[in-house]
Amino acid sequence: MGKVVWSGGVEHWAKKSDIKLFLWEKKAAGDAPSKGTILFVHGSSMASQPTFDLSVPGRPDSSVMDWFAQRGFDTWCMDNEGYGRSDKSRPINCDISNGADDLAAGSEYILSHNGGRPLLVYGISSGALKAALFAQRHPQRVARLALDAFVWTGEGSPTLKERAKKLPEFRQKNRRPIDQAFVHSIFTRDHPGTAEDRVVDAFADAILTLDDSVPTGTYVDMCSKLPLVDPEKVLAPTLILRGEYDGIAGMDDLVRFFERLPNMDKQFSVMSGISHASFQQKNYQRVYHLLHGFFSMPESQYP
Questions:
Q1: Which single residue of 241, 252, 291, 303 could bond 148 by disulfide (Cβ 3.0 to 4.6 Å)?
Q2: CA 222 to CA 228: how far, in whole Å?
Q3: What pTM, to 2 d.p., does this model score?
Q4: InterPro entries of this UniProt entry (predicted)?
Q5: How confident is the model at residue 168 (pLDDT cuts 50, 70, 90)?
Q6: How many CB atoms neighbour CB 178 within 10 A?
Q7: How far is CA 113 from CA 25, 74, 147, in A?
Q8: Which residues contact 282 (CB under 8 A, 6 or more apart)?
Q9: How would you class 103 by CB atoms within 10 Å of its CB: exposed for 0-12, middle for 13-18, buried for 19 or more?
Q10: For residues 195 and 274, what is the distance between their CA atoms, to the nearest angstrom?
Q11: Cβ proximity of 163 and 219 under 8 Å
Q12: pLDDT, tens digit, for every residue of 194-214?
């Protein structure tokens, strides 16, 4: 495995009390005014750059940050505490609530650099939970919210049911090891074949360049503490993205959450041929298309 190097962006550092949080920015291409500022929020088992700024030779537009930057958006991602380049010093398991606190600190920093323009926020898996909880706590900072592989109560999730068998182990420690085999298991546990092996290999290399272990907190929360988000308090226009084969996001669970969202500017999209980790799937460009349509939606003229 070679060391993965990221380029073409600008690194930033925000602070949450005494905790340093790493942010990565790629600016909108061209001279036209930015169409908006996107904040991408990573999941339980990987830092932000491998998820959102991946490079795979022969696979165009593997970096969703580059793809949106080329279409006029300023793009940012951030490593939550305990992941990647962010601080790993505290003896805590970095749960969902802590991750939402990270987003509060990171968003405050971003807003100080973009003129205070509310953010377009995308989160995947536990990152979707962090993003939704952040949007619930700080509605004035979120212009639009996209939740991919989201879970509300956990009902109907075979992956969480299986993961809960190891809950006592996860509760006993703050971090869990990861390796190439684990990353590959993300793509084989639900429906093998939806992602190319070479893409998964590149993804794993990028993840393991930054981390050989990750916090347990999101696993503990998703297996034992759901629901963590009140849909009636998520006020932003919201897009729910659900992969056809995703074992985390139970369909009926998501529909009930969607029905309770108070803002009628909302969409629910089922993505055919996709399991989990949608940006690394064979059908990744369809995900980009859905997200771009939602983030570039014209403002409503009525009411």
A1: 241
A2: 9
A3: 0.98
A4: AB_hydrolase_1, AB_hydrolase_fold, AB_hydrolase_sf, Hydrolase_4
A5: very high
A6: 20
A7: 11, 11, 24
A8: 194, 195, 196, 273
A9: buried
A10: 8
A11: yes
A12: 999 999 999 999 999 999 999
The whole-angstrom separation of Cα 25 and Cα 7 is 11
66-78 confidence digits (pLDDT tens): 999 999 999 999 9
Domain assignments of the chain as residue spans, ordered by start: 10-295
**pLDDT at 237 > cutoff 70:** yes
Name the fold adopted by 10-295: Rossmann fold (3.40.50)
**Cα 72 to Cα 13: distance, rounded to the nearest angstrom:** 24
The one-letter code for the residue type at 29 is A
Query: How many Å is the Cα radius of gyration of the chain?
Result: 18
Place of tokens 């971090």: 175
Q: Strand order of the sheet with strand 142-148?
A: 10-16, 19-26, 74-78, 37-41, 119-124, 142-148, 238-243, 266-271
Residues in the chain: 303
Question: What DSSP line would sit under 174-219, residue for residue?
Answer: SEEE--HHHHHHHHHSS-TTSS-HHHHHHHHHHHHHH-SEEESHHH
